[in-house]
Amino acid sequence: MSSQEEISEKNLPREQDTAHGAVVVKDDPFADPGLPAHQPRIQDIDERAAKRSERAVAFLFLLSMAATVAFIASFVAFPVDKNVFIFPFGHVSILHFSLGLTLGVALFCIGAGAVHWARTLMSDVEVADERHPIEASPEVKQKVMEDFAAGAAESGFGRRKLIRNTMFGALALVPLSGVVLLRDLGPLPEKKLRSTLWAKGKQLINMNTNEPLRPEDVVIGSLTFAMPEGLSEHDEHFQTEIAKAALMIVRIQPDEIKDKRELEWSHQGIVAFSKICTHVGCPISLYEQQTHHVLCPCHQSTFDLTDGARVIFGPAGHALPQLRIGVNADGNLEALGDFDEPVGPAFWERG
């Protein structure tokens, strides 16, 4: 016998024969030990225990239903801007906290109820099945349907009506949380996107100095940003309004302006266009003074300010709206009306 064979025999698993004290070698060290003997649960032999489990599952489903109702009530009852101190989270929005808590409880209770139902009331007998080809034969399909019917019967779904009905109630109410959340999409824009704060007589306020702009403040080659008179950075709706009313001011030699209407709406070559790109609404801030082109930094849409701010490059769909301006009695630049079209990107109600 070779040394390799000796080593192989030495490495074979051995077991002690306790009756005769002999050491024997197993014939198959990797033999399938088989499934352990099935141990019945208390719910399998005691119907009172099964009823307790049934009531526990139903309670979890009912608690889920109550949490869903509380979610909807919280959405209606609590204002979005109210903060409270909750240990250990600190000061948090009572609306956000209550929505997260109630929705979490609703989903958890459905899951916990389903798990408790499966572990205590559904059949727990382990069944070994042989592997089969991916394509099922008619016999296998029939067996699957029979197994499904047997599983449905063993689950007590038809017999335990309390669990079934409360589960249906919990599953029916949970989607209402998503329906209620649709309110946060906000109201329809109606005509709010068609107009801005600009109106006849509103002075152009320099956004850097917060002072009214005068014609001599705007020199050729410079780019100035303005907002309507009466709008303040401390206003509650400042961001909403400036997103529509932001204005860029450029001075061009009148003989370089190609568009007739642009020249008529300017003052001594000072033109005012919306700062909001007509592609996706990014603020335009890059100006090339030799060509009088402005570039949107987001997607490189380029507009020619000497030709009605038409698009000469990029994905923007239409020209920048122009604001008609003039000078008031104090010598300050003022608007002579609002933009004649909606600013920014096109939207579904655009005329």
SSE inventory with pairings:
Elements: H1 3-11, E1 14-16, E2 23-25, H2 42-45, H3 47-77, E3 83-86, E4 90-93, H4 94-120, H5 138-155, H6 161-181, E5 204-206, E6 223-228, H7 238-245, E7 247-251, H8 260-264, E8 270-274, E9 286-288, E10 293-295, E11 302-304, E12 310-313, E13 322-323, E14 325-327, E15 333-335
Antiparallel strand pairs: 1-2, 3-4, 5-6, 6-7, 7-8, 8-13, 9-10, 10-11, 11-12, 14-15
Helix pairs in contact: 3-4, 3-6, 4-6
Helix content: 25-40%
Count of helices? 8
Mean pLDDT: 86
Major sheet summary line: 5 strands, antiparallel
User: In terms of per-residue confidence, which ranges show pLDDT below 50 for 5 or more consecutive residues?
Assistant: 1-7
Estimate what percentage of residues fall within beta strands: 15-25%
Widest sheet, order of strands:
5-6-7-8-13
Radius of gyration: 38 Å
Strand element count: 15
User: How widely separated are the two ends?
Assistant: 97 Å
**Class derived from helix and strand content:** alpha+beta
- SSE order: HEEHHEEHHHEEHEHEEEEEEEE
Assign an overall shape: elongated
What report would you give on this structure?
This protein has helices at residues 3-11, 42-45, 47-77, 94-120, 138-155, 161-181, 238-245, 260-264; strands spanning 14-16, 23-25, 83-86, 90-93, 204-206, 223-228, 247-251, 270-274, 286-288, 293-295, 302-304, 310-313, 322-323, 325-327, 333-335. Residues 1-7 have low confidence and may be disordered. A hairpin with a 6-residue loop joins β10 (293-295) and β11. Strands 5-6-7-8-13 form a five-stranded antiparallel beta sheet. Strands 9-10-11-12 form a four-stranded antiparallel beta sheet, with no helix packed on it. The chain has eight helices and 15 strands. The N and C termini lie far apart (97 Å). It has 351 residues and is α+β, with helices and mostly antiparallel strands. 35% of the residues lie in helices and 15% in strands. The radius of gyration is 38 Å and the shape is elongated. α3 runs antiparallel to α4 (94-120) and α3 (47-77) packs parallel to α6.
